[in-house]
Amino acid sequence: MTNVPVRPLRVAVIGAGPAGVYAADILTKSSEVRDAGLEVSIDLFDQYPAPYGLIRYGVAPDHPRIKGIVNALHKVLDRGDIRFIGNVAYGRDLTLGDFRRLYDAVVFATGAVKDARLEIPGADLEGSFGGADFVSWYDGHPDVPREWPLEAREVAVLGNGNVALDVARMLSKHAEDLLVTEIPDNVYQALRRSPVTDVHVFGRRGPAQIKFTPLELRELSHSRDVDIVLYPEDFEFDEASDEAIRTNNQVKTMVNTLANWIAEEKDTGASRRLHLHFLHNPVRIYDSPQAPGRVAGIRFERMELDGTGNVRGTGEFVDYPVQAVYRAIGYHGSELAELEYDEHRGVIPNDGGRVLDADGNPVPGVYTTGWIKRGPVGLIGHTKGDALETIGCLLEDRDSLPRAEDPDEHAIIALLEERGIEYTTWEGWNELDAHERALGEKFTAESAERGTPVQRERVKVVPRQEMVRISRQNAS
Ligand code: NAP
């Protein structure tokens, strides 16, 4: 006797970013599903009216190569065997009880969208910004304010990961050079007025401990009218650094790139500079008597390598007058209603993707994948491995999954309608997608007429209500 349902296995995936789409895709294509003669029926939810999560709202607009992953995700969702349901928030519109009633299994793929906290004095001063918040702003996230105060001439960006590079590049690039991207108009207008001249990126460890990736680092030198400035005194290597350079090609490539930039000593007299500093540990962001409560500078302790690739303080402190600080020191996953939460790591406690309860036991039928499962590290492609593991667990458990009371595919739609939730659909996304592309074409045509031709593939619609309106305009 087994519990294998004769009807399709009903699975809800919450989060339509890469992690959620990969999980849904792997589940539909799994040979275990095929071999067992199982059918699966998957609903993919997102709190935003549009799909693609981090790709739409986390990848920098001047990274069309990464944004191109959207084409692959589009193909998956366009097959028609995974149903997209957008503008529905877990914990607000639907409870865990709702999902349990309607599905045999739920997979949480909600990612990590908040900034990790920087616990130093002054981190909350006006002019101290979370890198993730800035990314949300320039990517036209529907729930962040449209205005961003770009008033600083000198800016500090903290962190040596790819988000710090994105933030520094977006702050230092000339707005005109971003017009070909999908940046929303409010972002273009604000960047155009930015008085910035110097963007300083600070890493707390050495050049061999950076968490950038080679392509993203090299890209810095492609910004027009922006000089890269490096400081030879920051180039310290310990045994662990030498070992990393010897054994890790990425590190070797990046250290070489930095060394070449130092050797070139390129000062082209550009109107903007992007400085890369290492061995600077932030200790205090401070204001000034002239502008109390507002960032006036940042203090660092100079660090030295301790032989293991870690650092210790030298006792020497250095101040940089800046008018804004961007903290790009990592993302942090958010707590989810009715599930345990590991506050320190910002993840849902889990064992290989099986969500655990307060006693460390698997919660039947509840799984997790992506950044909310393992923390905000790794490139988008790495999420596939996660999804494989999680879906593997789900399929292993399939005979013991709690059975949904109401597995009818229409039940969720009826519930959303009963609650008056303005959910969006795949057809709705296609409407919005076409609308954004049409805005791009219009811009392209008008710019040509003005004699300043700019080719724009898409102009993003930002306000949530407008996204919903366009997505639902032809809904029956
Ligand atoms: P990350 O790669 O983990 O980098 C975080 C950086 O912040 C590290 O340099 C870390 O230094 C530093 N840091 C942490 N706490 C700090 C503190 N208290 N004070 C000073 N510095 C501190 O995180 P991320 O940049 O947010 O990126 C997240 C993931 O997304 C990464 O895997 C990244 O590659 C990926 N991503 C990729 C792209 C792309 O274009 N390919 C773009 C964006 C993000 P330590 O090393 O010393 O801890």
TrEMBL record:
Cofactor(s) essential for the protein: FAD
SUPFAM superfamilies, per the entry: Nucleotide-binding domain
Domain FAD/NAD(P)-binding intervals: 10-188
Entry keywords, A to Z: FAD, Flavoprotein, NADP, Oxidoreductase
Reaction(s) catalysed by this chain's protein: 2 reduced [2Fe-2S]-[ferredoxin] + NADP(+) + H(+) = 2 oxidized [2Fe-2S]-[ferredoxin] + NADPH
One Pfam family hit: Pyr_redox_2
Documented EC number(s): 1.18.1.2
Presence of the UniProt keyword Metal-binding in the record: no
InterPro entries named among the record's database cross-references: FAD/NAD-bd_sf, FAD/NAD-binding_dom, Ferredox_Rdtase, Ferredox_Rdtase_adrenod
Gene3D superfamilies assigned: FAD/NAD(P)-binding domain, NAD(P)-binding Rossmann-like Domain
Family to which this protein belongs: Belongs to the ferredoxin--NADP reductase type 1 family.
PANTHER family with a match to the protein in the record: GLUTAMATE SYNTHASE 1 [NADH], CHLOROPLASTIC-LIKE
The name this protein goes by in its record: ferredoxin--NADP(+) reductase
Organism: Sinomonas terrae
